[in-house]
Design goal:
about 800 residues; alpha/beta; Rossmann fold; nine-stranded mixed sheet; eight-stranded mixed sheet; serine-type endopeptidase activity; protease; serine protease; Peptidase_S8_subtilisin-rel
Length: about 800
């Protein structure tokens, strides 16, 4: 006897549903319990036949059932076995699925294209329409990789009815790959309906668009989970779990699964509501995204449709069925409403070079499903029956029974349907209202970032770093806008959220390389670092040197250098830091020390980038000469613009040729008053530099209690000084991304050179009031095929 939850019920019953699941255990128990259970069941039937006024009798019966359930001493539940699976006969479309893949591979062999191929988003369920026998229609959205500028990144809705008998398409003219290419790139308000089998593809007719899509990358399940968009809706979890599980069963032996799926393989089209032009994702319409190439069997691509990482594929030597393990992980992430990626970042799951251990996903998933089963969900200790059922499905996938699944692929598919797909279908059909449709998720409405509305004004030059009138033009200054006043919570939250989004991209793409040839060496020339700070990862500090007499580079009396280093440590996973100390105070004069430190970074540390967050009003010939030597050696140099606003101009070293000058902006891309005016004809890059939280030296014992802001070893700071290490981190990410996804590509301009990074930033920029706003999240969210566009830019 199984009680299945009713999603229309607003509040759980005061009586635990777990009581009902114990009936089977009671009936298998001692005679005394069996007799009592039989009597209760007889009374139940008698009571149900009476008037509804016998409320007290029903309450007493419920109480008695609960007591009997507790007497079993067994709180475990074999819920899936209670759900009947007989009679569930999902149509097996495996042959049609494989035939569709073959048709698309042949169709993309366009002789007119330099890169013959396209991204196909294929509906995880066939189109539900009346069709002739031996014909299965599939819904697709196609985006060509070899499209011209006018059609690049544009989706074209298409429907292909796959047939297995070639005689069924006699009477129609065959479409050549060149015709298919043109047909699926035409921008019309209709879409083509095609019929195909291997070796032949024909067009039947055009139909009005069924879905109006936004011409941007589709959104992955992974993205929705990272952004916590998946609503806490059990009915939605069941429906999505069933659709994904059924798709894995249907696609199991096809080229579509030549690589195991992940949450980043499951996509949803960005659909446009023409009434208000809002962008929506309908979770009841999932797609599988795949790159189709002529003669290739690639099943995914990192650069299209926001696919995130090449170790999304689950590789586990301890698991006999990697595709089923992958399904279990996807279902676990749907159940939890978040991905497992943040657990992957823990060092315990990585080797000494930062690479993910082979069985890490299996271990993480096993731990999480175990904690799910041991924990409680819902309010008032009410454990939702639906979550218990889903946990059983997930547990079966993560810890499969070889005897139940079998060894042969055909046998595995059949048992996957019996033990996973069919129970999920029964759960869905019994527990969800017949007319249930999940609410769509609203996404970004516009490709442009909105202006800050009613933003809390950011004060200039408050607190510890109050602006001191510069009466000596020869003085240099650490360009920080100051410790911001308390109460700026809204601004802080905005930046914290932006930083979290940046870190999510690190997780999605697994930009590792903590050691080895791909590690990026970055020198910070500043006030040193608080080396013993509890948050500083000392294994990522490759070297240090002080040019201040009797002053250790591992001690930071100012805090500025520690804050800079902390930003880079928090926003990168592929960087090793080198610390050059040139000052113990906020203001300093010694340009020769800076020149020596930069030369040391170039010749001794052999760094790839240098971060300079200070500025002088005047240039220095020796300093400039050394910086140009760095540029010649392909060292990328970032420098802060200035914090003097309209009263000052771009300072040095930011004003030197070939140095990437960085301005400070809010997380919405709004440049603050502290920045100098943009220079026409020059790059005026800006990125987040307002209210950035990072490490700060802990106060001395005698100072404890005086400075609550820094008591926990963190501080919020603003200024072009803070924006500069953020820009360094963006550059490190892009280098790691290109090394990972375009390894071996013959670049016209190397991305990891000053010229290459300037070209990348120019490609990433969003023009905002004379400044070029650089945001990693915006770029990856708004652009289409990132690799293709960058290759074109760096040719």
């Amino acid at each position: 006897m199984q009680d299945t939850p009713d999603f229309q019920r607003k509040k759980p019953s005061k009586y635990s549903q777990s009581s009902y699941s114990n009936l089977v255990a009671i009936l298998r128990g001692p005679p005394q319990k069996r007799d009592g259970a039989r009597k209760c069941i007889e009374n139940l039937g008698d009571i149900l036949g009476r008037s509804k006024s016998h409320r007290e009798n029903r309450k007493n019966l419920q109480t008695e059932l609960e007591k009997l359930g507790e007497l079993t001493g067994d709180k475990s539940r074999e819920c899936l076995s209670d759900l009947p699976t007989e009679g569930i006969e999902d149509v097996d479309l495996a042959e049609y699925v494989q035939e569709l893949y073959s048709i698309l591979v042949e169709a993309c062999d366009c002789s007119l294209a330099g890169d013959p191929g396209f991204i196909a988003n294929v509906g995880l369920a066939p189109v539900e329409i009346e069709t002739e026998k031996d014909s299965v229609p599939f819904s697709l959205f196609i985006s060509h990789l070899h499209a011209d500028d006018a059609t690049f990144g544009v989706w074209r809705e298409t429907q292909i009815s796959v047939i297995l008998q070639s005689k069924s398409i006699m009477g129609y003219s065959h479409i050549l790959p060149e015709e298919f290419c043109k047909l699926t790139r035409e921008q019309t308000i209709t879409y083509p309906v095609l019929r195909g089998t291997r070796g032949s593809l024909t067009k039947e007719r055009d139909k009005p668009q069924s879905i109006i899509v936004d011409h941007k990358p589709s959104v992955s399940l992974g993205n929705l989970l990272y952004e916590k968009k998946l609503k806490d809706d059990d009915a939605l979890r069941v429906k999505l779990s069933y659709l994904v599980a059924k798709a894995v069963w249907q696609f199991y032996d096809s080229h579509w699964m030549s690589e195991t799926w992940s949450k980043d393989t499951i996509h949803f089209m960005k659909e446009v509501d023409i009434r208000d032009e809002s962008i929506l994702a309908y979770l009841q319409r999932p797609f599988i995204t795949a790159k189709i190439g002529s003669g290739k069997q690639d099943s995914s691509t990192p650069s299209a449709s926001e696919t995130k990482t090449d170790d999304n594929q689950v590789s586990a030597s301890l698991h006999s069925y990697p595709k089923i393990l992958s399904l279990g992980i996807i279902l676990l992430e749907i159940l939890r409403g978040e991905g497992i990626d943040r657990f992957r970042m823990q060092q315990r799951f990585r080797d000494s070079e930062g690479n993910l251990h082979k069985d890490a996903d299996l271990v993480i998933a096993g731990f999480l499903i175990g904690s799910e089963k041991n924990g409680k969900t819902g309010k008032d200790n009410y454990v939702s029956n639906i979550r218990e059922l889903l946990r059983e499905v997930i547990d079966f996938c993560i810890k499969p029974d070889v005897e139940k699944l079998g060894r042969d692929s055909t046998e595995v598919r059949a048992n996957l349907h019996t033990h996973v797909v069919a129970p999920l279908f029964q759960l869905y059909s019994k527990s969800c209202p017949g007319d249930y449709v999940p609410d769509p998720i609203e996404l970004s409405q516009s490709p442009k970032l909105p202006q800050v509305q009613n933003a809390v004004p950011i004060p200039q030059g408050l607190g510890f770093y109050n602006k001191i009138v510069n009466d000596d033009a020869a003085d240099g200054e650490l360009q920080v806008g100051g410790l911001e006043a308390q109460g700026e919570e809204a601004s802080r939250r905005q930046t914290d959220k932006w930083i979290e989004g940046f870190q999510n991209l690190l997780v999605m793409h697994d930009i590792g390389a903590r050691a080895g040839p791909n590690v990026i060496k970055v020198a910070i020339i500043d006030s040193g670092i608080d080396y013993n700070h509890p948050e500083v990862d000392q294994t990522r500090i490759g070297g240090w040197e002080s040019w201040i007499e009797n002053s250790d580079a591992r001690v930071d009396k100012v805090g500025h250098g520690t804050h800079i280093a902390g930003i880079i440590l928090q926003l990168t996973t592929n960087v090793e830091l080198y610390i050059g100390k040139v000052t113990d105070t906020k203001k300093f004069k010694r340009r020769d020390l800076i020149t020596e430190a930069i030369k040391h970074a170039r010749t001794k540390w052999k760094v790839n980038m240098i971060s300079l967050s200070f500025g002088f009003d005047q240039s220095d010939a020796h300093e400039n000469r050394e910086i140009q030597s760095c540029i010649k050696d392909d060292i990328i140099i970032f420098s802060s613009a200035s914090n003097d606003g309209g009263e000052g101009s771009r300072t040095y070293p930011a004003a030197y040729d070939n140095v990437i000058c960085i301005h400070s902006a809010t997380p919405r891309g709004t440049v603050t008053e502290r920045n100098p005016s943009p220079i026409p004809g020059k790059d005026n890059f800006s990125t987040v530099g307002e209210m950035v939280k990072s490490y700060w030296p802990l106060p001395k014992i005698e100072d404890e209690g005086r400075d609550k802001e820094r008591a926990d070893g963190f501080s919020y700071q603003s200024g072009t000084s803070m924006a500069t290490p953020v820009a360094v981190s963006i550059a490190a990410f892009m280098i790691g991304y290109l090394r990972k996804y375009a390894n071996g590509y013959n670049w016209g301009i190397d991305p990891w050179t000053p010229l290459g990074m300037q070209a990348i930033f120019r490609k990433m920029k969003e023009d905002r009031g004379g400044y070029e706003w650089i945001s990693l999240q915006r770029y990856f969210r708004q652009k289409g095929d990132i690799l293709r566009s960058l290759k074109k830019r760096l040719t």
